[in-house]
Write a structure and sequence with these properties.
Length: 281
C-alpha cells in the first residue's frame, strides 16, 4: 500500500505489524519526517520503502518505475492520507506553526516551497489577507486583523510567530475557548502549503492508482477538509468508481482522545474502488 502521509511512521508501523504480508511505500513532503520514520520502521527491513513527494507529485513518482522501489510492483491495494501537520511540526518552534512557542514565521511542511507565512503576512495586500483569514480560517473578524497587521508591518516586518499571535490578540481580544490566533494560523498554514489543491490531488491519485478492490482512506482534521473528502467520495460513488465503506466518518473514541488530544477532531472516511482504469493512466 501507499502511505502518502508517512509522518513519524505510526500508521505504517501499525499496518506492517497487523498484516504480515503487507509492504508499504511511505512518502511525505517533509524529508525531516523520513529520518524519524526510518528509525522507527527499521525492524521491518525491506517491507517498507521511502519516498519524498507532495500529493501532487505522487502520480509522477508512482508512474516512474525507476523511483518505484523494489519489491513493489503492480497497483497498490490501499492508499492512506492523514492530512495536515504532524505533531513534530507543532512541537518544534523553529518550524513556525505554533503560536504558543515563539519561532520564525515559516509554516512550510515542504522546505522546497519558496513562500513562507512571513512572506504572505508582509507582502499580501490588506484585502487579500482579510479574505484568506475568512475563507481558509473561518475568522469573522478578518478585516480588523488584516488592518492591524498592515499598520504594524509598516513599522517593521513581522517575522516571529509570537509577534503575529500578539497582534491578532490585540486586534480582536481574547476570552474565547481557543487562542485568538488559532484561525489566522490555520489559514496561513493552508495557504503556505497549498492544502486545498493538494487534498484534491491526493483524492485523484486514489482514483488513478487503485485497482479494483483497492481502498482509499483519508483522515482530515477540520470540517472544511472533511466536506471536500465527503463530496469527492459521493461524486465517485455516483459515477460508479467507488463504493463507500464509511457512511459516517469514523472518529476517535473518548478513551483514545484522553491519551492523544490531537485526535479529537480527526475524521476518517474510506471508500473501495469498484472499477479500475488500469492504474495511473
Ligand atoms: C498528521 S501527519 C501524519 C502522521 C502519520 N500518519 C503517523 O502515523 O505518524 C501528516 C503528515 O502529512 C504530511 N503532508 C501533509 N500534506 C502533504 C502533502 N500535500 N504531500 C505530502 N505530504 C503531506 C506532513 O508533512 C505530515 O508529516
Amino acid at each position: 500500500m501507499v502511505d502518502g502521509t508517512l509522518g513519524a511512521g505510526g500508521h505504517t508501523a501499525s499496518i506492517l505489524e497487523r498484516f504480515a504480508a503487507s509492504r508499504v511505500l511511505g512518502t511525505d513532503q517533509d524529508p525531516d519526517m523520513q529520518g524519524i520514520a526510518k528509525e522507527r520502521l527499521a525492524p521491518f527491513g525491506d517491507r517498507v520503502a521511502f519516498g519524498h513527494s507532495r500529493f501532487s507529485e505522487l502520480g509522477e513518482m508512482l508512474r516512474d518505475d525507476a523511483s518505484f522501489p523494489a519489491p513493489f510492483d503492480g497497483l497498490p491495494v490501499a492508499m492512506l492520507f492523514d492530512v495536515g501537520v504532524a505533531s513534530p511540526h507543532l512541537d518544534l518552534p523553529e518550524r513556525g506553526f505554533s503560536f504558543q512557542a515563539d519561532g520564525p514565521l515559516d509554516m512550510r511542511m515542504d522546505l522546497r516551497r519558496e513562500v513562507t507565512a512571513a512572506g504572505i503576512i508582509n507582502q499580501w495586500p490588506e484585502g487579500e489577507l482579510a479574505d484568506l483569514f475568512y475563507q481558509e480560517g473561518g475568522e469573522r473578524r478578518s478585516r480588523a486583523i488584516a488592518k492591524r497587521i498592515c499598520e504594524a508591518r509598516r513599522r517593521a516586518p513581522i517575522v516571529r510567530t509570537a509577534t503575529l499571535a500578539d497582534l491578532v490578540a490585540s486586534a480582536i481580544g481574547g476570552g474565547g475557548k481557543i487562542h485568538p490566533a488559532t484561525r489566522v494560523f490555520q489559514a496561513l498554514r493552508r495557504a503556505v502549503n497549498d492544502e486545498g489543491p493538494e487534498l484534491e490531488a491526493a483524492l485523484d491519485a486514489g482514483l488513478d492508482f487503485l485497482g479494483e478492490g483497492g481502498v482509499l482512506a483519508v483522515i482530515s482534521f477540520h470540517s472544511g477538509e472533511d466536506r471536500v473528502v465527503k463530496q469527492w467520495m459521493t461524486k465517485q460513488v455516483k459515477a460508479g468508481e467507488f463504493e463507500a465503506i464509511t457512511k459516517k466518518p469514523i472518529q476517535a473514541t473518548y478513551e483514545e482522545t484522553k491519551g492523544n488530544p490531537r485526535a479529537r477532531s480527526a475524521k476518517l472516511r474510506a471508500a473501495v474502488r469498484i472499477r479500475s482504469n488500469g492504474g495511473g493512466v
